[in-house]
Design brief:
It is a single chain. The chain contains no helices and 25 strands. With about 270 residues, the protein is mainly beta. The chain has two domains: about 170 residues; about 80 residues, Carboxypeptidase-like, regulatory domain (Immunoglobulin-like, Sandwich), CATH 2.60.40.1120.
Amino acid sequence: MKITSYSYYIILSALILFTACNKEDLSENAARLRIKLTDATSLVLREMYVDIKEISVFATDSANTEGEWITLEYSGGEYNLLTLMNGKTVQLVDQYFPSFKNIEKIKIQFGNNNRLVTVTDTPVPLQLSPEIIDGVVIDNVTTDLATNVISSIIIDINAALSIREINGNWFLKPAARAFPETYGGSIKGYVSPMEANPYVAIIQEPDTFFTFPEADGMFYFFGLNEGAWDIYLIANPESNYRDTVFTDTISEGQKLELTPKPIRLVFDTAPSN
């Protein structure tokens, strides 16, 4: 299996929606909704901002017979996604929400100040693709809200598939998935040396996820399907370290920690003249 070569590498991940009880408006039929932003990185960009204007959910009753769009209590904001990697989050929403509802869809509306900042400090505006002017709708969320029970939904935006260039203009068209926080397994590992400037990709068709390790080499992926995952530890070509590729398997809900700790990339000694 090969990783497609892009003219850019943008690794972007996840909004998290949490539900719990409201302190100010507590009742027996109450839940509380929290939204957080998490997990993003890039190999060539220094900053990547998304301008989120509005978040709403499509909620049905317990019998799934009636539904309505509910706009969440969110005032909007701009977020540098490249500061949010490997489980880091920033909370967007924390509000009262009716229980005994099923959230089936999530809609995100973006403002007009989405942008990239390159390593040379050059700002690059991200225009909204025409298809998302009215928002991005994520289907098949299917999360039940129970009284006094915290329910969580992860929204994962894959930036490598979310940004495109046409005639010198860059466009934002988020490719997103959504799943319950309790869904799936996770993969955690460490890579060294950091002099290799590595990044990590994991692939299980049709899904590909990326991250940039922390200063100590730690990388982390979550919300993963069970089964075999191809794991790529990819060094900066200028570092003269070799890439490492292997396959590991996770069972349903497994929290897999890779060994050895760390996984060391091998220095590729230049041939003598």
